[in-house]
Design brief:
Elements: H1 3-7, H2 9-23, H3 35-50, H4 55-65, H5 76-85, H6 88-100, H7 102-117, H8 121-132, H9 136-155, H10 175-181
Helix pairs in contact: 3-6
Length: 192
């Protein structure tokens, strides 16, 4: 299914204008993408308008400059499995909501970054749960368990650092809780 088919020809044409103006993206380039991946690209576009590069890339560069070992806590296979399991109708509703009010989406994205920078982990977690709705089980909770196992494997060879999305830290299923339950000491690094 394409975004054109999902949105309909008239709404797709209108969306193309909105996406080009608000994010500098050509919607046709994303026509066969899952809505969630397209939403991610719109998020990156917002961040690139306000910052030199996306937050995760900045963290990667800083960790590399510190001489830390680099890698991911999820495999490409993990990511593919997760994406295939997401409810398409919910993704479409999320996309339509963004297209209806791109200014609100931009404000929310920048607010999320500010919460991350300020270390407001509980607020990030609450926002993520609320914004993701029924997708939170797949996109937050189950991923936290996968990332925790991966982190434990990496930790066997010594201390390590991980950068994950802000919604993954807090809560009873959060990475901080899971890692501490596994007997690890967890502390934030200050990258300012």
């Amino acid at each position: 299914t394409s975004l054109q088919e999902v949105l309909g020809a008239h709404r797709f044409k209108k969306a193309a204008t909105i996406v080009k103006k608000a994010f500098g993206l050509d919607i046709l380039s994303f026509d066969r993408w899952l809505p969630m991946l397209f939403i991610n690209q719109m998020t990156v576009a917002v961040l690139e308008q306000d910052f030199k590069k996306p937050l995760d890339m900045s963290l990667w560069d800083r960790a590399e400059a510190m001489g830390l070992e680099l890698g991911g806590l999820e495999t490409i296979s993990d990511q593919k499995r997760i994406l295939k399991s997401l409810d398409l109708n919910h993704q479409i509703r999320m996309l339509k909501g963004i297209l209806k009010d791109v200014k609100a989406f931009r404000r929310q994205t920048l607010k999320t970054v500010n919460l991350f920078v300020e270390g407001e982990l509980h607020e990030l977690y609450q926002r993520s749960k609320r914004d993701l709705g029924p997708l939170k089980e797949v996109l937050i909770y189950s991923r936290n368990y996968t990332m925790c196992r991966s982190f434990q494997e990496r930790h066997k060879s010594g201390p390590c650092v991980a950068a994950v999305g802000g919604g993954h830290f807090a809560g009873k299923h959060g990475l901080v809780t899971l890692l501490r339950q596994a007997g690890m000491t967890v502390r934030p690094l200050n990258f300012r």
